[in-house]
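Incident log, structure service

09:12 report received: a user says their structure output differs between two submissions of the same chain.
09:20 pulled the input from the user's history:
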Amino acid sequence: MKNKLHRYFVACGLILNFTGHIQAAPSVWPMPAELPSVPPGEDSATYPMPRLDWVQRVKNNNEKAQAQASAIQLVFDGDSITDAWQSKGREIWDARYARFNAFDFGISGDRTEHLLWRLSQGQVADLHPKLIALMIGTNNMGANTVEQIAGGVQAVVADYRQRCPDAVILLQAIFPRGHEATDPVRTKIKAVNQIISKLDDGHKVIYVDFGDKFLEADGTLSSEIMPDFLHPNAKGYQIWAEAIQPFIDKYLGKS
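09:34 re-ran on a clean worker, output below:
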């Protein structure tokens, strides 16, 4: 397990030494100054090109964050579930988090390794948030084991701790998914959450699991909260906001 964790820490720009302490490695890996583009006059449908939208979005997010770095008190990070605060949850976001100059780094489709790469690109350079609301790992469910996913989450937490040492990380349990309580992915999510819950140190990392708030009494996931049984709708974001409000009040102050 130690060797596996070492690889994760190295991937996010950290070194786990033999005493178990984290020490800094190169904190930022270079991103190309210019991304490739289709030459003028070329047929874009036939010119070989990688998908650059994700890399470009990371670059744009970094630039936007840097422009307001000193003002950002609250950071959200994760995958599409976090990303959609800017669409399905936008009204709640504006009402509750805008006053903290909150910044949402979540990107649809991201797994733990993608978030680690984003951090290595200077995502939070010069940022000094008070609170970081983090949830990541649901997109790793198909490709990785329970231990690998938990190791990825641990690596992300460690990386954030190194880059934002004064911040409190609100580590949110991975949300339940799938309509039925017997869905095998539910068991896997529960196992991952059990492991990452141990990252809570009562000080700088606070673990919270409010997934049961999305469920019916029989354990099923309602389409009235998550229509595709994965992504919350506006009602789901309201439930989410209510669940984390005590932490917002505690670490950022009541309105």
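09:41 both user submissions now match this output. Likely a transient worker issue. Closing.
09:42 reviewer note: The chain has one domain: 71-252. Residues 12 and 116 are 5 Å apart (CA to CA).
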